[in-house]
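Quick board copy: two proteins, each given as sequence then tokens.
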Amino acid sequence: FMMARHTPGVHQKIKKAVVGIPGLGGLGSTVAIALARVGVGKLILVDFDVVEPSNLNRQQYFLHQIGMPKVEALQAILSKITPMLSIQCYNERLERENVERIFRDADVVVEAFDRAEEKAMLINAEGARVAAGTVNEAGLPLIHISTDYVFDGSRAGAYVAKPEEVDDLRN
């Protein structure tokens, strides 16, 4: 039934995609649900936090999930939306030293952190070399999403960093 959602041939490509999402708050949880609905084959979810009452006004969680680790709560939601979706969860803080281990199999990483420091950490992660919007030496694309921090200061949204803009995050 997933093929019925797409133009012929599109589903064959999408179902092979592996997408990493560090940060499962308002942006990350919404992106994960959208990708599950479109038929992405595998999601790698990373967050160390738990669902709190203050999350419910903007994040994709439910009242009965309060206190649950976000990775577990989101996995339960995604499994109901698309049971055939492969989901790999990491209930841990993403740090420079574990980026490579966690996102080794990802085709793309959709960065959805809250804080600029976390965004910079991912860009500057162990072994990372940003060139034309890539996050590591293997050429892994990194998509930045933000509601309150943007590179040019004009508006929030999705953005692929240019190498010269990475220095702005380091300062």
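And the next:
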Amino acid sequence: GQITTCCNPRTASFMTLPLVFTTDVAHIAASGDGSVIASVSMKGELFVWISASRSFTMVDTSGLILQCFSASPIACPISSLAVDEHGTTCVVGTTAGAIGVWYICDGTLRALPELYLHECASPVTQLMIHRSYGTVTSESETSDSSERFPGSVCIFSVYENNAIVRWIDGV
């Protein structure tokens, strides 16, 4: 799966990503440059495409899905999905109000603790990730250089009951 644009803005060429779901895609999200693409099936299966490794990674969402009690057999237990602009964090929200968080580094995903508010057991309808970046400046005799490093992560979650929650540094 590679997306390339041509010199002429009226034309574009593209290549489809491999088929990984047996059901329809319910949600899709991507990093700003498209290097990380996450998608969720109607069954709540989460796959993340990382272009650097040119492969899909299936993410275990079974713990999150077991918390979801849907009256509709056709409803997706995962109600929202987001990937941050730099492709370093992926989050999903569920119909039970839980939020799953994964950190993406060097082509691998690492699960972080689930986020859940007991007083706000309502489906997550929207997610947004903001990551701040810091700068380390190194001064030596040969050069002055600065290096950016990932700082804190802030996740905003919107719930069906109109609650908005800002999660900071808990991820």
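Board note added afterward: Residues 53 and 107 are 6 Å apart (CA to CA).
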